[in-house]
Structure formats: structure tokens, C-alpha cells
Amino acid sequence: MNYLAHLALSHDNSDVMVGNFIGDFVKGSNYTRYSPRVRTGILLHRKIDDFTDSHPIVRETTALFKESFGRYAGVFTDVFYDHFLATQWSDFHPSQTLPKFVSRVHRILLFNYLRLPGEAKKMLPFLIKSRRLENYANFSGLSRALNIMARNTSLPQNTQDAIKILKDNYETINAQFTAFYPQVVALVNEELKDVYAD
Length: 198
Description:
73% helix; 12 helices; globular; mainly alpha
């Protein structure tokens, strides 16, 4: 799961959202430096990643990209699952539209900007300016996001090949996502059932 899913799976709690957003940037026990609910978000991010990476449905999706992208196949699965979440947003999160959710996320992350790790601070303005979370819903937005990732990380440059694989297997991957997402929602609901009790 990529940024959109992690944020959507935060039960609309601002601190949990912050933690879930920065989860990839906080290593080891460094999560203990944060407030309790931000820590909850960081640990939830890790749990979501572990559940996702080991899930047989997700592994079926990842296998479609393995031959062309090797160890980076899972990165494309994460981003493309965000695409399907964006396209089916109202089915899974009907309480607010995707544009309104994204705008709220932007406000929360900007308000908490000083608490973000350095790498998260660097990428946030670009995430907001491009409205990347919202634009995962279309192929041009996906292409821009992957090109940015390829320029700034070790992700291979031939990202259009991954989009072609997505298009060639669109219905299959959509079905895999649709079967998987309710399971990760159930996991998160169980993990966060006591988040408002403290």
C-alpha cells in the first residue's frame, strides 16, 4: 500500500495519519521519539506493510511485475493499489469525497510539518502541488508519480513498462485489489479499536 491507502487507513485521526505517513522514514526504535498516537500511526504503518507484503493475493499481483522489475515489483504493486483505491474511493470510504479527503490530509501534514522527518519534509510540497494522492486515479498521474520516484530513488527508469503491464492486466489486478482491501481494513479496525480510549 502506498501513501493514499496508509492515510485512508488511519481512522481520520490526525496524529495517526502523521505517523502512518512518515512510517517509511522512521527506522528502528526511533518511533519512540514521537507522541503516543503518532507512534501508533508509525507502528500501524509497519503492520500494514507486513500484512500486505506477505498476503497471497498481493503476491499474485507482485508476480506480474517480477520478471521485468525484480525486487522493485512490490513498489509498483503498492502504487497501483493506490490507483485502484482512488478509482473506487466512494465504495470504500463513502463519508467524504477523495478531493475533500486529500485537501484535509494536506492541511494536517502542513500543520505538523515541523514534526516530519527531513525526507518527508522535502517531498511534501511536491506531493501537495501535484495533488498526487488524488491523481493516482488516472494514468497520467500514475506516470508522473512513478517518474518522480525514478528520478529520486533507485526505482528503474522504465516505469512506462510497468504501466503497460498494469493496463494489460487491469481487470485481474483490480479484482485482486478489491478482494484484498477489505482484509486490510479489517486488520486496521482491530488494531485501532482502542485508539480513542486513551
